[in-house]
Amino acid sequence: MIPLRLGEIAEIVGGKVEGDSSVTVTAPAVLDGRQAEPGGLFVAFTGEHDDGHDYADQAGRAGAVAVLGSRPTPLPTVVVEDARAALQALAAHVVAQLRDRLTVVGLTGSQGKTGTKDLLAAVLSDAAPTIATIGSLNNELGVPLTMLRADAATRFLVLEMGARRIGDIATLTGLVAPDIAVVLNVGQAHLGEFGSRAAIARTKSELVRGMAPGGTAVLNGDDPRVVAMRSLTDDPVLTFGRAEHADVRALGLSLDRLGRPSFTLRTADASAPCALPLVGAHQALNASAAVAAGLAAGVPLDVATASLATASLSKWRMELRDLACGATLLNDSYNANPDSTRAALDALAAIEGGRRIAVLGEMLELGDASEAEHRAVGEYAAVRADVVAAVGEAARPIADGAGKRSVVLADNDAAVDWLRGHLATGDVVLVKASRGVRLDEVAAALE
Questions:
Q1: For residues 242 and 249, what is the distance between their CA atoms, to the nearest angstrom?
Q2: Rounded CA gap, 411 and 17, in Å?
Q3: Mind listing the pLDDT tens digit for each residue in 84-109?
Q4: Cβ 28 vs Cβ 149: under 8 Å
Q5: DSSP string covering 391-411, please?
Q6: Bridge-based pairing state of the strands 41-43 and 24-25
Q7: How many whole angstroms separate alpha carbon 276 and alpha carbon 143?
């Protein structure tokens, strides 16, 4: 965050200061008062069941010096009609002040966004000071919060951009037009909200349409819907993937006994070996995307691949843990859709061990296709796992698809009890579901 007096913030967002307008904000903005830093800004929202303004004192004890909200609080407060619009306006202003020395990367896709963002952050951080989205804070609040973490030392700003409806990404690029626009894929995530893959493709294409003049689009050469987006810009395009025409091509993929990939990344001019400390063959595609974006940002191929050798992912994403019972846990519980679940099942099958147990919960927001997609995932799981445990009644179609290899468990508690009674030394257990199902609780109980 660049230092700003409260009076300046009020002028930027069109608000009124209640309290000392000379207070200077020097640290990032937060929505959770417990996460405030000394000199920070607490942004308060009034929800259906909770009022953030009531937590201003808590934020102050943690170090916040001011509040941005819709009514006065015990801390000096910029009062506005719409806190979300004010937060976005403040973020846009801050980044605009840094724009002449800042390269902005926007990244979207139906799956793999956070993992690829983590890999790209590793590549760019080794080259220059980098700010990247924490976890999956990729919506209309998360993106401006990330933007506000940038300061005069920042040279790369990596923004993961998610969407639930047409126009969401256009709103985000309206805050800052990316110099590099990375589109990973067009899949089935939020299919129930969008209605069709065509609508999802249109939404993801908003990132390319919203790119800064002279920017570079980085597109998945293996996904026809993404490749088609190159017609949306006259600016440079780099492609990545396994396809023969890809500018950054992943070749010679192999997996070690823990399912960690090694491969070669090749461009027209050079090639470099790459070994990832991450689980899953799909990570090779994510790495090729990160390296392509790194090339667009000026990071050489060999430097980028070296950075990937020590990269790590955000929590609950393909985390491999040894359990006290002698089994191995593959915790990918943060979120799920049909494509990401298949990738996780492939990773489970690649890990050497005894029985492979897939603990799967509901995949949300699939609309009318939900039952068929869950059943199809069950069929896929039955080929890759020895036991398929479907957690919750909504996940029963997974068990139906898996047939004789399946067991239905009523809820998370039942899943924990069943696993504690059945896991043995050498077993490998995958935990995977949409965030709302909270299968992370099952993984935590096992650990």
A1: 5
A2: 49
A3: 999 999 999 999 999 999 999 999 99
A4: yes
A5: ESGGGHHHHHHHGGGEEEESS
A6: unpaired
A7: 28
